[in-house]
Specification:
Blueprint: E1 2-7, E2 11-12, E3 17-18, H1 20-33, E4 40-43, H2 47-60, E5 64-66, E6 76-78, E7 83-85, H3 91-94, H4 110-114, H5 117-134, E8 137-140, E9 143-146, E10 153-158, H6 160-171, H7 175-181, E11 189-198, E12 201-211, H8 213-217
Parallel strand pairs: 1-10, 4-5, 4-10
Antiparallel strand pairs: 1-11, 2-3, 6-7, 8-9, 9-12, 11-12
């Protein structure tokens, strides 16, 4: 089974919509997605993801089912500087958390506990686990039991923060490492697939992360959303 995780286009977060650039990105994405032979498509309940999917789905001859747990990762955390999303910590802060690099214990930090981050993660993991089992794979420990092995292709239209939570479950990695050491640019596509080297036992392997080749094919550079300034003196790039 393959899972394609597609991030929404360049966002206008205040209005939960795509920017003008985001719509251009979504159009470029649709030219890529029209060649994807998907068996099922799913979309976040948030409008920026729905708008992104709206250009691809007709070209794929597909419809998408809305799944609540594909929304952006919701908890707001009191960080040293201000209240904000759970993962948006400066490197010196998150890397000093005692279990930031531990898949099983990364939420054991006072600010994350106060924001009920573990409860949100467990809810998403539980919903994702039920979804995967429905599609033939059941997690047992760090691997997956292949109950009904298949070659289906599933597409999720969702969000970067949430994408890292899903990948953490599939790959047994702590989300903080994914949140801060990678970037899935707007309309990027991440592909993971099962490998069944022993009958009945599967693992998921990342085939590509944050692929934006469709943007380059359209003569576009990936948007900066989700990144921070490359050099501290780059005043035209995001600092906070």
């Amino acid at each position: 089974m393959k899972i394609l995780i597609v991030r929404h286009g360049d966002p206008d977060y205040a209005n939960d919509a795509l920017t003008e650039l985001g719509w251009k990105e979504a159009e470029a994405l649709s030219e890529r997605m029209k060649n994807v032979k998907a068996d099922e498509c799913y979309v976040s309940p948030l409008n920026r993801a729905k708008e992104t999917a709206s250009l691809s789905l007709p070209k794929m001859n597909m419809q998408a089912e809305e799944l609540k747990w594909l929304r952006e990762f919701a908890p707001k955390v009191q960080r040293p500087e201000k209240m904000g999303v759970a993962w948006d910590w400066v490197p010196s802060d998150w890397t000093s958390m005692p279990y930031a690099f531990d898949f099983d214990r990364w939420t054991e930090f006072p600010a994350l506990e106060d924001a009920h981050v573990r409860e949100e993660v467990e809810w998403i993991y539980s919903e994702f686990d039920a979804f995967l089992e429905k599609h033939g794979y059941k997690k047992e420990g760090k691997l997956f039991k292949a109950i009904r092995p298949n070659n289906d292709t599933i597409v999720f239209f969702c969000h970067f923060g949430l994408e890292c939570i899903l990948l953490s479950y599939l790959l047994n990695l702590p989300p903080f490492v994914l949140w801060h050491s990678t970037i899935a640019a707007p309309t990027s596509i991440t592909t993971v697939a099962t490998e069944e080297r022993r009958e009945g036992i599967a693992q998921f392997r990342m085939l590509s992360f944050g692929d934006t080749s469709h943007l380059y094919a359209a003569g576009m550079e990936p948007a900066f959303s989700g990144r921070f300034r490359e050099c501290y003196t780059n005043e035209d790039e995001r600092k906070d």
